[in-house]
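Example record

The entry below shows one chain as it appears in the dataset: sequence first, then structure tokens.
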Amino acid sequence: MKIVIAGGSGFIGQSLSQLLLTEGHNVVILTRKDRKSSEKVEYVRWLEEGFSPEKAIRNADAFINLAGVSINDGRWTKSHQKQIYESRMKATDELLRIISLLPAKPSVLVNASAIGIYPPSKIAIYTENSLETASDFLGVTVQEWENKAKQVEKYSVRAVFMRFGVVLGNKEGALPLMVMPYRLFVGGKVGSGDQWVSWVHVNDVVRAILFAIKNSHLSGPINVTAPTPLLMNEFGKSIGSVLHRPHWLPVPPFAMKLVLGEKSALVLEGQQVIPKVLQENGFEFKFPTLRSALEDLL
């Protein structure tokens, strides 16, 4: 297939590109930087005046939208929140414009999303059928992002929303920061410890994206989380066990709020999210348990 990726140079985008190339697909990466294309990877400039990416893209089978300022970078000031929100809306608007102008439409737009659309809860179990939505910054951003991406359906293009959980990688994502205290022998529970962590290995994330592209009957939201969410305290114990480090020094909530501000909700609150759509459609997780994921990554 010929697959166009917006946000291809990011954490998930890099792993996704590698998977697609390994499987023999052709990759087009939308970029703001001038990069040299190769036989298998074509770089196309976008989101800048003077560039018309729609003229360079022909006969694409799928579009993948991972573009947007990372929610993990920096403190959530009002200006940073504005960047997180506006970068997603602007990129999605541009993808809709590009697709509208293509004579041959792609079959699908796979749009990034997040489990932050579900309200924090210690007792609820969320699947793609859950209708409750969070009213905080991340919840509203995700809802409006999905609603915008859904507009691609007016061009008879299938829309899929990949609701990512806490994505684990060995160099990027949440894991390096979570692991650091254990490497220094000061790891312990974060906050109350009884908040849910719905995690997923980055390898399973990119495999799930390709799975959604290949299975043409799938549309709408897909929870991209491992089938075994854990409480934060158990998550930390698993890190300590794999690294052979103690799990003993708690980090109180006020300390996290002091350091991270509003972003502290990402670690102090959580949701128990189940990947029902992936499971019911035969997707096999390569790393279904946290132990297997940590042993691979660490």
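Notes for this example: The mean pLDDT is 95. The two ends are 33 Å apart (CA to CA).
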